[in-house]
C-alpha cells in the first residue's frame, strides 16, 4: 500500500487509522534522530511490513539496528499487532 494520499482511493477507517498511527510513531522519534544528524522516512506499508529509510548520521551509526528495534517495538505497542520494520537503501523517493 502506497502512502501518497492524493493518488489513493479513500481507505476504510481502520486502514486510515493504522497509517496515521504508523506516521505518528515515526514523527515521535524523528526529533531525537534529527538532533543527532539523522532521520527516518516512511517509504511504504505492505501488510505487516513497514519500509523506512534511515538517512544522515543514521546510515553509518552502529546503533541504527537498536533504533529500528525501538521504533518497531513502539509500532507493535501502538498498533496492537506484530509488524516488521524493514530498512531500505537507495534513492530517498519517499512514497507517503
Automatic annotation (TrEMBL):
PANTHER family assigned to the protein according to its UniProt record, in alphabetical order: IRON-SULFUR CLUSTER SCAFFOLD PROTEIN NFU-RELATED, NIFU-LIKE PROTEIN 3, CHLOROPLASTIC
Its name, as the record gives it, is NifU family protein
For this protein, the record's InterPro entries field holds: FSCA_dom_sf, NIF_FeS_clus_asmbl_NifU_C
Annotated family: Belongs to the NifU family.
What terms describe the molecular function in GO for this protein? iron ion binding; iron-sulfur cluster binding
Q: Tell me the Pfam families matching this sequence.
A: NifU (PF01106)
Gene Ontology biological process terms, A to Z = iron-sulfur cluster assembly
The scientific name of the source species is Bradyrhizobium sediminis
Domain (NIF system FeS cluster assembly NifU C-terminal): give its ranges: 22-84
Write down the superkingdom of origin.
Bacteria
